[in-house]
Amino acid sequence: MIERRPDISAVERRTAAANAQIGIAISAFYPNVVLTGGGGFESTNIGTLIQGPSALWSLGAQATQLLFDAGKRRAITDQARHNYEAQASTYRATVLGAFNEVEDRLSDLRVLGDEATTEQRAVTAAQHSLDLSNQRYKGGATNYLEVLVAENTLLSNQRTSTDLVTRQFAASVGLIRALGGGWDVTQLP
Fold first, then answer.
1. For residue range 95-150, what is the model confidence (pLDDT) as tens digits?
2. Residue-level pLDDT at 105
3. Could you write out the three-class secondary structure of the chain?
4. Confidence of residue 50 (pLDDT cuts 50, 70, 90)
5. CA gap 165, 25 in Å, rounded
6. pTM for this one?
7. Angle (CA) 77 81 82, round 5°
8. Which of 81, 96, 162, 186 has the most CB atoms lying inside 10 A of its own CB?
9. Torsion over CA of 138, 143, 148 and 151, rounded to 10 degrees?
10. Residue 128: which of 162, 149, 154, 155 has the closest Cα?
């Protein structure tokens, strides 16, 4: 899935192009071979133009090789190899960065999940406290201030719980983005 990320795809293509440049540079060490051929008909009389004795043909080959270039080809080949190594290092760094980003988003989701579980317990406890405060108020054992404090605590815990859910959604979107896109199988290359 991580190969779908545009940054990884771009670096992968640049690395493949740098690898191809090595092959192009190495090909300069081989001789250039040219094969030629020709054929046709020749006749002084138009009536015998396409008969067997009028046919002619020729084949030829030519090979050229540069004998001395003062190390230019070797330097170009070395440059292509170094460029490939630099692109390969960039590719590795990009992939490791992508894995790091995915791991960070997974860690965020795990931590937020733990926080949401704890906050849900706090909401449940605050609701229980509010229920007890209401019963005590209705029974005349306490004043309404205790009910208001319990309601305020419950609302605060519910607001925090909702905020955690929002942060979980944002972290899920971040994870999907870090993985290179959506989960739909039809979008896979």
1. 999 999 999 999 999 999 999 999 999 999 999 999 999 999 999 888 999 999 99
2. 92
3. CHHHCHHHHHHHHHHHHHHHHHHHHHHCCCCEEEEEEEEEECCCCHHHCCCHHHEEEEEEEEEECCCCCCCHHHHHHHHHHHHHHHHHHHHHHHHHHHHHHHHHHHHHHHHHHHHHHHHHHHHHHHHHHHHHHHHHHHCCCCCHHHHHHHHHHHHHHHHHHHHHHHHHHHHHHHHHHHCCCCCCHHHCC
4. low
5. 56
6. 0.64
7. 115
8. 81
9. -40
10. 154
| Architecture of the 2-32+65-183 domain | Up-down Bundle (1.20)
Pair of tokens at residue 139: 């029974």
The separation between CA 178 and the C-alpha centre of its own chain, rounded to angstroms, equals 8
Token pair belonging to 159: 């607001």
Tokens 């390969």: give the residue: 88
Give residue limits of the domains in the chain.
2-32+65-183
